[in-house]
Amino acid sequence: MSRVLALPRWPRGQPGASIRARFKVWAQSRQPRTDTLLLTQRNVYILPTRAGWVFASTLLVLLLASINYQLNLGYVLTFLLAGSGVVSMHVTHGTLRGLTLHLKPVSAVFAGDPAVLEVVLTSPGAARFGIGLKVWGAPADTLVWNNVPALGQAHSKVSFVPGDRGRHETPTLSVETRFPLGLFQVWTVWRPSATFLVYPAPERPAVPLPPARPVPGGPSRSLATDGGEVEGVRAYRRGDALRQIAWKKAAKSMNAGGELVSRDTSASLHQALWLEWQACGALSPAERLSRLTAWAVAAERAGAEFGLRLPGFTLEPASGALHRTACLEALALWK
Amino acid sequence: MTGETALRARIASLVPRRWGKLPREARDTLFLLFVIAWTVLPHLTHLPLWCSLLTAAVLLWRARLALTNAPLPGRWVLVAVLGTAAGLTLWSFQTLLGKEAGVTMVVVLMALKTLELRARRDAFVVFFLGFFLILTHFLYSQSLLVAGAMLVSVWGLLTALVLAHMPVGQPSLRLASALSARTALLGAPIMALLFVLFPRVAPLWGVPQDGRAKTGLSNVMRMGSVAEAAQDDDIAIRLKFDGPVPAARDMYFRGPVLSHFDGLEWRAGASPAPPLLRRPSDVQTRGEAIRYEMTLEPLRLNTLPLLDAVVQSPSVEGYVLAMGNELQWRADRPVYERLRFNAVSYPSFSYGQAAARASLNEYLELPSGYNPRALQWAQELRSDPATAHADASTLARMLLAHIRTGGYRYTLSPGTYGRHAVDEFWFDRRDGFCEHFAASFVVLMRALGVPARVVTGYQGVDLFPVDGYFVVRESAAHAWAEYWEPEAGWVRADPTAAVAPDRIDRSRRLLPAPGMVAGALDSVNPMLVATLRNALEGLNNRWNQWVLNYSHSQQLDLLKHLGFSSADWEDLAILLVGAISALATAGAGWAWWDRHRVDPWARQMERLRDALHSLGLAAAPAEPPRTLAQRVRSRFGPAGETLAEQLEMLDRQRYSRDSLARPDGSLTRAVAASARALRSHAGVR
Fold first, then answer.
1. What are phi and psi of B404, to 5 degrees?
2. Which residues in chain A are contacts of B594 at CB distance < 8 A?
3. Which of A296, B177, B603, B623 could staple B159 via S-S, CB 3.0–4.6 A?
4. Does B570 touch chain A (CB under 8 A)?
């Protein structure tokens, strides 16, 4: 504990808060972050539920009635229920114990959209029933319930709305069950180690993209690169957006045994589309990031080549999903 | 558990075909309603009619709501119905407390709560009320049949609980009931342990008296009260004789002795004087003693109906017995439980010869203003010179002869009698059963100047013992008379024997007309019915002896068998705590052992890696068997071919389209053996 005592950040003067903070530090040190967690006796906790306490007092009343009326069958009933309760305690604990939890990589989301954690539960033995997952501290009605087949796996999706843009740690998850009788609650606290990105929320309604500007010294290509008869059209290339396809001409071309044809946008290459911090007028930094995010999404959807210019950071024009991801990452992490 | 399968088959035949297609919610609700109805059903005979109808209506209404997925009624409807039910309960029982009213209210609450199943908390209330309701059945009967029915109820309630905790998909009832049965069966050893070792203590406080006395015996006799019991075929006493069995005609079980007559009712005398003040009884016994073990059903009386005459106090666990002045044995408090004890009786005895004349006066009292014709008749007899100086036994013989020849008839339905019941019976109607004969005999004897009293109890046993146990039924409840004579003391006279000797000699009692089904069965095969009845009663008897009659003395006996020399409370507590600790340790041990249980495929891979490690091949955890096979080939060449092929086969077993559910242990062992062989081969080379 001496290591813990040396921590400097503790609030002073509030014993309750101090104890809580101390407990939190201790509890987190017991639960190292991991993406794959095997549930054992060390990390599965059990307590009676309120129904469990009511059940216990019911048993007490049944016992008193049996004593006072000298009912041997009353004793049998009371003790049968008590025995079932004790067994249910073991069954409840055994429902979580031995399970393996594994978190799949978490995909990035825009701020304000729900993130989805996909968890794989694996049972090494018998089937498990009624296992609920939720983000630690979330209300009980957000529990996602699962059954895990014997020697099998169950895939569970827990969604939650993460905070503002940036790189986030996966929130602490709680896995719990009350199966079979609801007299005991067994739970575990799982701190996955994975992190994920939250992009800025795209501005809504979206503002039109800024006009492209001619860029001196930009890459220049001839108009009909495929040497085709038709001006402004070239053969379909992998990655061309659907809207880029010249459907009428493509139909003709394919009729003649040719391939799909796309509109040649190389003309625009002379003009680079720059998404710039400076172009956002008098907005606050957060609003600027939102607008740039909306633009990046729109530009990629239009199939345009675009670059991103933030104070102290520049991404050269390019196109495609990877470029979009790079832009969004930059927007998420820009400081 | 063949009963269960039969029941399940019956349920399956009752359930409509749409059952499987019902939405989960509706199906679970219907199942719970069915369990509740099953649990309430045995109460129908004790419940007021309005309660049965209300419960049935509410359950049916709820079932309809579940089927149509309609919204539940508002809270005010429930409050109104509950208020009405409370009012009706008050009207039916004049109270809201007590057993009957309590059971009625629990049934109503349970039914109404089903209309309020909104949250999980509501469901739990239904379950716990259900467990209470099950217990209330045992207040009425603890028979094997009730126990079986309630076991089904417990099973059903636990199944409903399990269903409530399986929120995903549509788990089948079969699965949920199997899971709940498994929970209960695993809990059964704990139940048995607690049942055997939990100390049996006396009631912690007085329980409300039962309004309806079920036994045929009572401290008050009014014409007609014994007739009700005479039709009750329940068992009152079980006897197991150690040695000779007395003749049925000698088996008089002396219950309350009724000596005070107020013209309408016969009452027992005052409670006996404290032991120190009581003079020693002057019972003289002759002949052989009869030893027996007696199992008494709950009497709700102080007086234990022992076989006449018991001289030494039987020892009954938890009670202090004392002999009354009238040879009856009384406990220090009413007996509300089944008792088992040993007693010694002397069928031939005499007592009361030395009674002081003054102490006999109370047995001569007759209220004035009742039965004038009987008194007149006795007066005439006393003034008749032929009988004026006759002794008591001559007078008794005369009265018995009069009964025998006077056209009296023994019947269970003599009708009701008015204010001058003895007059009416003795002179006009002449129809009656034991209490009419006994009461009239005693009134006339007293009018003739002979001290006399009514003795109530049981008379006779069933002809054939079951499992060595003789059975005395409630219908054997009887009333007879005793009169006092200077030389002989108190003498038994049974006026009923004078008119219906069969009733006494062969213990054949009048039977009410059997119901139609029973009559049909009887006419088909009377032997079959008797055999079935005997077998059932044998089973019931064992149930009584081993389960219902298990008490503190049996616990102490058990401890003695286990080697505790002077067993007492502490030993019982130590044993119980020890056993529970052992069980808890076993549970924790199981959990600890279970910790090591991993996926069998993972265990197999671990063994493979171990085997390869001994060959000097360090395998990473992520490497599948086929990769390992390649590494074995590249390392050992043709010598490793067997091992490599085995590894490939193992890979197919796990990953191919028709893979095995569990790893094949023999192949795992074969791999290990090949690895050893390869190592020795490589070592030789």
1. -65, -40
2. 94, 97-98
3. B177
4. no
In angstroms, the CA A236 to CA A157 distance is: 38
Alpha-carbon span B578 to A38, nearest angstrom? 34
The rounded distance, in Å, linking the Cα atoms of B100 and B121 is 28
Domain coordinates of chain A in residue numbers?
Answer: 31-198, 265-333
Which of B124, B194, B662 is closest, CB to CB, to A82? Answer: B194
ipTM value of the model?
0.77
Residue B618, sorted as left (phi over 0), alpha (psi -120 to 50) or beta, turns out to be beta
Angstrom distance (rounded) from CA B367 to CA B260: 10
Nearest 5 degrees, angle CA B465-CA B468-CA B469? 65
Contact B184 A83 (CB under 8 A): yes
Set of chain B residues whose Cβ sits within 8 Å of the Cβ of A49? none
Cβ contacts of A55 on chain B, cutoff 8 Å: 124, 128
DSSP conformational letter for B419: T
Q: Using one digit for the tens of pLDDT, what is the confidence trace for B208-239?
A: 444 333 446 777 777 655 444 445 667 788 88
Q: Can you point out the beta strands (E) in B460-543?
A: 470-473, 477-485, 489-493
At B171, give phi and psi (nearest 5°).
Answer: -60, 140
Q: Which pTM value belongs to this model?
A: 0.66
Q: Where are the domains of chain B?
A: 2-197, 216-512, 516-548, 552-595, 600-684
Q: At what angle do helices B665-684 and B600-613 cross, to 10 degrees?
A: 10
Question: Taking CB atoms and an 8 Å limit, are A151 and B662 in contact across chains?
Answer: yes
Closest-approach residue (CA) in chain B for A154:
B168
Owner of token pair 């996955």 = A192
Q: What sign has the CA pseudo-torsion B531, B536, B539, B540? A: negative
C-alpha B349/C-alpha A271 separation (Å) is: 133
Rounded CA separation B212/B427 (Å): 34
* Residues A287-323 pLDDT 10s: 888 999 998 988 888 888 888 888 888 888 888 889 9
Integer CA distances (angstroms), A300 to A113, A165, B623, in order: 20, 20, 41
Nearest residue to B238 via CA among B323, B338, B387, B329:
B338
Pairing state of beta strands B321-323 and B431-432?
unpaired
CA distances from B356 to A6, B361, B362, B457 (A): 99, 9, 12, 26
- Omega within 30 of 0 (cis) for the link into B309: yes
- pLDDT grade for A79, boundaries at 50, 70 and 90: very high
Helix (H) / strand (E) containing A57: helix A50-68
Around B50, how many Cα atoms within 13 Å sit in the side-chain half-sphere?
A: 15
- Of B331, B379, B328, B343, give the one whose Cα is nearest residue B490: B328
Coil, strand, or helix at residue B181?
Answer: helix
Three-state secondary structure of B82-143? HHHHHHHHHHHHCCCCCHHHHHHHHHHHHHHHHHHCCCHHHHHHHHHHHHHHHHHHHHHCCC
A184: closest CA among A54, A31, A41? A54
Of residues B42, B134, B156, the one with CA closest to residue A73: B134
Contact by Cβ (8 Å): B221, B432? no
The amino acid at B659: S
Give helix then strand counts, H and E, for chain A.
Answer: 7, 18
Beta-carbon contacts of residue B537 (< 8 Å; ≥ 6 apart): B235, B466, B471
